[in-house]
Design brief:
By secondary structure, the chain is an alpha+beta fold. It is built from five helices and ten strands. Strand 8 and strand 9 form a beta hairpin.
């Protein structure tokens, strides 16, 4: 009799506390979901922050590398050089095709070879010295096989070292202010005269 009474009381207690247990479990599950949601939002926020930090770091590193190569850099601190700048550089250079050659000049009306490269590079905020020999000391050396658009190509046209410079524009061609042609022209690197006098190239824009 006592045993039956005990079982009855126990059943009643369990019946009464079951909803409370369910509510606690539900609350715990809800808290767990909320915490997971917070974690996802936090992770997403951290990723965005990380991307911004990496982008800023890349900009600073690119500008630092340009300056490290001995080049005067005059663009806004939020700018970096890239593919778009190279195309802009090449298109800008081609605008001056057939402009006359004048020794010592670097205006839009007349150029000598280093005056032309100096003038064109300014469009992407890079200030080069007005000397083919001095320009050859700036940037990273590049082999002829690895030439890329925008690279500076150098030649020894006299007997006193590097004396001529142009800008590589792709397809084995370069654009330059030529004293022989008397104007800005495009020429193949395979041209007999320039092929035998080629002395190397440097890369300023990554």
């Amino acid at each position: 009799m006592k045993k039956r009474k005990f079982i009855l009381i126990l059943t009643l207690v369990l019946f009464l506390i079951a909803p409370i247990i369910d509510l606690k479990a539900l609350a715990k599950s809800s808290n767990s979901k909320a915490n997971r949601k917070k974690t996802v939002i936090k992770t997403s926020s951290n990723k965005k922050k990380s991307k911004k930090v990496k982008k800023k770091s890349l900009k600073k590193k690119t500008i630092k590398n340009i300056k490290k190569r001995g080049i005067s850099y005059s663009r806004g601190s939020g700018s970096v050089l890239g593919e778009g700048d190279i195309e802009r550089l090449i298109n800008y250079a081609k605008k001056y095709l057939n402009v006359r050659y004048v020794y010592g000049s670097s205006s839009s009306n007349a150029f000598d070879c280093s005056g032309f490269t100096m003038y064109v590079y300014k469009v992407v905020g890079i200030n080069l010295p007005h000397s083919a020999s001095e320009q050859s000391k700036i940037g990273l050396a590049v082999s002829k096989e690895n030439l890329r658009k925008g690279d500076l190509v150098f030649f020894e046209t006299g007997s006193s070292g590097i004396s001529h410079v142009g800008i590589y524009i792709g397809n084995n061609m370069f654009i330059h202010a030529s004293s022989g042609a008397g104007r800005v022209v495009t020429t193949s690197l395979s041209d007999n005269y320039y092929a035998s006098r080629y002395r190397g190239a440097t890369r300023i824009i990554n």
